[in-house]
Amino acid sequence: MPNFTLDSRLQQDSIHVVDLPLCQVRLSGDARYPWVILIPQRADVVEIYDLPGDEQVRLWQEATRLGKAMMAFYEGDKLNIATLGNVVAQFHLHVIVRFSGDAAWPGPVWGHGSAEAYSGDALEQRRAEIARLASAAISSP
Questions:
Q1: What Gene3D superfamilies does the record point to (predicted)?
Q2: Residue 95 belongs to a domain with what CATH number?
Q3: Residues whose CB is less than 8 angstroms from the CB of residue 132 and which lie 6 or more positions away in sequence, other chains included
Q4: How many domains does the chain have?
Q5: Digit-coded pLDDT (tens) for 86-107
Q6: Can you give the pLDDT at residue 2?
Q7: Is residue 2 one of the residues assigned to a domain?
Q8: 69 and 130 in contact (C-beta within 8 Å)?
Q9: What is the rounded CA–CA span in Å between residue 115 and residue 109?
Q10: Structural domain includes residue 111
């Protein structure tokens, strides 16, 4: 995607995992939740309607398939899929596995506590898990 440039804040706050047919999958730097961010690899996308209809469908498929795989693997209680874009204008979609006992439950993860960095090998382990889940989820019908 020659015209795709990742916003510097997304680059700073997340780690590249894998590129899907449409989206770049990035792992949030907050270790409190299994949390990925999907960014369509297209230039100048601020709102979902900036994508053509077929790519809007593709975005939803990538998000829901990966979310379903993450829910099963991490045994979550609820899947949160959200887009805000108030701080970072570049369109990005958060996919977060939630647990009824997590620190922010039942409220949103935003504005609750401070992000916790991954420790030791946990970052690479989570990154590898998400890469496997994404590859399997997207290759299945």
A1: HIT-like
A2: 3.30.428.10
A3: none
A4: 1
A5: 889 999 999 999 999 998 999 9
A6: 54
A7: no
A8: no
A9: 10
A10: no
* Strand 78-82 with 14-19, pairing: unpaired
Question: Tokens 């829910």 map to which residue?
Answer: 71
Per-residue CA distances from 18 to 4, 40, 50, 75, 108 (Å)? 15, 12, 23, 22, 26
What Cα–Cα distance (Å) separates residue 11 from each residue in 21, 39, 62, 137?
Answer: 19, 11, 20, 24
Mean pLDDT by 10 residues, the chain (141 residues): 85 96 96 97 96 97 97 98 91 98 92 89 97 90 64
Q: Is 99 within the bounds of a domain?
A: yes
- CA angle 104–48–108, rounded 5-degree value: 5
Domain housing 36: 8-104+116-139
